[in-house]
Amino acid sequence: MIKLQIIGNLGKDCIVKEVNGKNVINFSVAHSEKFRDAQGTEKERTTWVECAYWIEKTNVAQYLTKGRTVYAEGYPQADAYANKDGQPAATLRMRVINIQLLSSNTGGNEGGSTQQQYPTSNTTENSFEKNSYTQAASPTSVVNKSDVEMDGANASDLPF
Q: What is the DSSP string of 43-95?
């Protein structure tokens, strides 16, 4: 088994679709890292992962908005293609089995981080919506799936 884990920022608001009677939440996550090359010049590299989260209830989708920081894990898939210049390129995709919203607000992580986990989906579909992703980045909020489904609950009612 190969598992992929990523912490990064959502590039745009997620897209919720129904495919063959099943719900899928599509979103893209960007992870940036800074490093120094052999000459000592500081550089930055951003890796984009296109994600598909197959889940029965899509309540989490309201929190998967552009700029939010998330942790996602799942099964990777790499697809090769020729870019617009005819050069070989690749796309990294992930069938998400677990997602956590990491940052506490859209402006960053000033209020500290609370980690809440959404349980895995029992479906085994491995489908990704092509051409439904764009790129951008910056952080935000945390919510637990069970909290989303509770009527009338608010953040002060949570046990953490």
A: EEEEEEEEEEEE-S--GGGGG--TT-EEEEEEEEEEEEEE-TTS-EEEEEEEE
